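Now for one record.
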Amino acid sequence: MTRAQLLATGEATDYSGNTNEPCLRYSLRAGGYAGYSVALKRVVYIEFTGKMATSRGIRIGSTEDEVFAAYPNASADRMQNVYPRVAPGVFYTIGIWDGLVELLILESERQDCAM
């Protein structure tokens, strides 16, 4: 999604940073943030907050068991991050601490905005 498309949705309310930075972080009306890469000229991640949920019902506060029930083939790393792929080149980063989801980001494999 381009910056113009993001703004045209009416869902982006403001951004932090300045246009000289490589990434702009837009606040979303429903909560969360969209990360826009200036170099790639597109949105490269969406950070979920509050009650925002994936299409399979995972949100901040979901349990580790719920994550693996929703995404049984997801890979995980030793830091308890889970990486379910949802489309070619697109995946979630789900951070689990003490058995609960504390971080939820939908992101592009090809991006230059560090989270």
